[in-house]
Specification:
Layout: H1 5-15, H2 17-32, H3 36-39, H4 42-53, H5 57-84, H6 99-112, H7 115-120, H8 130-136, H9 141-176, H10 178-221, H11 224-230, H12 241-268, H13 281-285, H14 291-300, H15 303-319, H16 323-350, H17 366-384, H18 392-411, H19 417-441, H20 448-467, H21 471-477, E1 485-488, H22 489-494, H23 510-513, E2 517-520, H24 523-531, E3 536-537, H25 543-551, E4 565-566, E5 569-570, E6 573-578, E7 584-597, E8 601-616, E9 620-625, H26 630-641, E10 654-657
Parallel strand pairs: 1-7, 2-10
Antiparallel strand pairs: 2-8, 3-6, 4-5, 6-7, 7-8, 8-9
Length: 661
């Protein structure tokens, strides 16, 4: 059985902590090294190191020292390179293309002198440049080290601590709901990736748009028909020439992506309903903690909600006297939806989608197209009224929001990846086309921030009104269901048990996630049997109990046990037993969805563990599984259900069946 990536990482940390310490040194070194540090996302890499460290204070201190040493090594080498090749530094790529970075570093030294080395360590964009400039400016070595050493020592924990706290919270969340850990990781790392990619593409195209623009103008002059159409757009001296050029590039790229998705549709169609299969990626993320949040987001991104926002925002623009903006706004948003509706109808005639969840078969996904156009054109509209340095922020905010809404639809199995990607490409292409027309016609307006506040407040208000009373319906419609299977007793005993899931989650190590036993019995009768052997039913806590873990006592009698999810649902029964030597045993049971015939006796999947209370990071108390006592815990269960066992003592999972069923 494979343990999965996260489980492998956890095992590596436990058996080879030196690798984590080495990675902390390497990442900090590369982040601080001249030129190289410009391209290395050190903040994310060190955050991930901190996440792996989690609640291990000793390992954190070691990583702190390693990261500080790596940062100092990178600074010293950068300083030496600047001192040795001072006359060549301005001509080095990419500094030759980014004179603003050198200028910012020079201004820092001009204002603060040697303290600029210390200050520059905490300013991300110029961090790899400051030591290099210190060398080129002939700063004394001892003076450089006097500021660089304390800066590196203080800088390392600022990057590691957030990851450590995040890792600690994930470890706690794993007890709360296993899949919540992976969902949080996807949201954090996915959000960062969308932010980083959008910013990179924006700055990359902005720096090269002038060259591309000249190339387009030269090409258009050789095309009589196209040249007459493009000449008014690219007339020299226009304030929006570069913006129009960028939108034109976005249009071309979006059309290419849309065509690629449509061409690949016949190969993707057989797996329309894969999101609802328990072993699929989307289903493996489901948990009862995150489900309501994503269900609300999916409702907020419904076409009727987005259309209401589009119409109301159009009315706001008309009331403000911005008629040109209002008509372009409605053309971009409602036009995207109509195009998606037409195209998805045509693709639906060619390839049949699933009957249970029709939106999974929409290519492009209509809701995704409308919500992308909504945020995308607002970014185009708002960026027009901002100065050049701030124009990227509306695009970054819109990209992150669209990414989260797209993930919510995928998470609930309401859309396929192909449908989301096609909807995104279609909306971006249409928005770029309407944006070109808007940017060449609309005039500059003041106070864009108030318009942004109005827009986002309108989104929240409409979403709350439109989704009121529908959350329970959406949760019920998207709830995961175990396959309804029945087995004759002998078939289940021989081979049928192998068809049932073998672990509660694919997150983490297999030894901790696996099911230890299967039992066929009425749940109340099973609880009564264990109670007769000294086990006690405990009420597994949820959100309210989480507060007790954060600030409560670590005494075993008062520390609550939190629910764990399987297939998006919490455990059906939790029981504990205190042994003669004061050890705590815990049994959890989940429904398998299978039954024995005749009689319809349900089959339950179970875990039994020895646990102990621990306090970590001063404030956090939690239950920790004792891996070394796993077999002893199973033997204790055997003593309670020994008469029910129908499998050999050395086999796992154990099979039990009630003698009375």
């Amino acid at each position: 059985m494979d343990e999965g990536l996260l489980g492998s990482l956890a095992s590596m940390v436990q058996s080879h902590p030196g690798w984590v310490i080495a990675l902390a040194f390497i990442f900090a070194f590369l982040e601080s090294l001249a030129i190289v540090g410009i391209f290395v996302p050190g903040i994310v890499l060190l955050f991930m190191v901190g996440t792996v460290v989690g609640m291990d204070p000793g390992l954190f201190v070691a990583c702190w020292l390693a990261a500080s040493a790596g940062a100092l090594a990178g600074d010293v080498i950068s300083y030496w390179l600047g001192y040795r090749f001072s006359d060549r530094v301005p001509g080095l790529w990419p500094l030759s293309r980014r004179p603003d970075m050198l200028a910012a570093g020079q201004v820092l030294f001009a204002r603060h002198g040697g303290k600029g080395v210390f200050i520059g360590r905490f300013i991300g964009p110029i961090r790899p440049v400051v030591p290099l400039l210190a060398g080129t400016m002939g700063m004394r070595t001892l003076g450089f080290l006097a500021w660089a050493v304390p800066a590196c020592i203080l800088w390392a924990p600022l990057y590691l601590l957030p990851g450590m706290l995040f890792g600690a919270s994930l470890e706690l969340a794993a007890d709360f709901a296993g899949r919540l850990v992976l969902v949080l990781l996807i949201l954090v790392l996915g959000g960062w990736f969308v932010f980083w990619l959008t910013r990179l593409l924006y700055e990359f195209t902005a720096r090269r748009s002038g060259w591309w623009l000249r190339s387009v103008i030269r090409w258009s002059t050789d095309q009589p028909v196209i040249g007459r159409l493009l000449h008014p757009l690219f007339e020299p001296g226009g304030r929006e020439v570069l913006s129009v050029a960028l939108l034109g590039m976005l249009l071309v790229v979006s059309l290419a992506v849309l065509i690629a998705v449509l061409v690949s549709m016949p190969f993707l169609a057989p797996a329309w309903d894969a999101e609802y299969r328990l072993l699929s990626l989307a289903a493996s993320l489901r948990n009862h903690v995150a489900d309501p949040f994503f269900a609300w987001l999916s409702l907020a991104s419904e076409p009727r909600t987005s259309a209401s926002i589009a119409v109301l925002m159009g009315l706001v623009l008309l009331l403000l006297g911005r008629r040109i903006t209002a008509w372009h706004w409605l053309a971009a948003t409602l036009g995207s939806y109509l195009l998606a509706l037409l195209l998805s109808t045509l693709t639906g005639l060619l390839i049949e989608g699933p009957e249970t969840i029709p939106t999974v078969g929409e290519v492009p996904h209509r809701g995704m197209a409308l919500i992308t156009a909504l945020f995308g054109f607002f970014a185009v509209m708002l960026a027009k009224d901002l100065n050049a340095r701030r124009r990227k922020w509306p695009y970054l905010a819109s990209a992150i929001l669209v990414g989260v809404l797209a993930f919510s639809n995928y998470y609930l199995g309401l859309a396929s990846v192909a449908g989301l990607l096609a909807g995104l490409a279609l909306a971006l292409g249409w928005t770029a086309l309407v944006g070109i027309a808007y940017r060449t016609r609309a005039i500059h307006r003041r106070r864009p921030v108030w318009l942004a506040v109005t827009f986002y407040a309108l989104i929240v208000a409409v979403a709350i009104v439109q989704t009121r009373g529908e959350l329970a319906v959406r949760l019920d419609a998207t709830r995961l269901a175990q396959p309804d299977r029945t087995y004759p007793f002998l078939e289940w005993q021989d081979e049928g048990w192998r068809d049932l899931p073998d672990r509660v989650t694919r997150l983490g190590r297999y030894e901790r996630a696996r099911f230890d036993f299967q039992v066929a019995s009425d749940l109340e009768r099973l609880a009564e049997r264990l109670e007769a052997e000294g086990w006690q039913v405990v009420e597994a806590g949820s959100g309210s109990a989480l507060w007790s873990l954060l600030l409560g006592s670590d005494e075993s009698d008062t520390l609550p046990h939190l629910s764990r999810d399987f297939a998006g649902r919490p455990d059906n029964l939790v029981m504990r037993r205190k042994t003669d030597d004061e050890q705590i045993l815990l049994v959890r049971l989940w429904s398998s969805g299978a039954r024995l015939q005749p009689g319809g006796t349900p089959i339950w999947l179970g875990q039994v563990r020895q646990v102990r209370p621990v306090r970590q990071l001063v404030l956090i108390s939690r239950w920790e599984e004792v891996d070394s006592e796993a077999e002893q815990a199973l033997l204790q269960l055997d003593r309670g259900l020994g008469e029910w066992r129908i499998s050999a003592p050395e086999e796992r999972p154990r099979l039990y069946v009630s003698l009375f069923d």
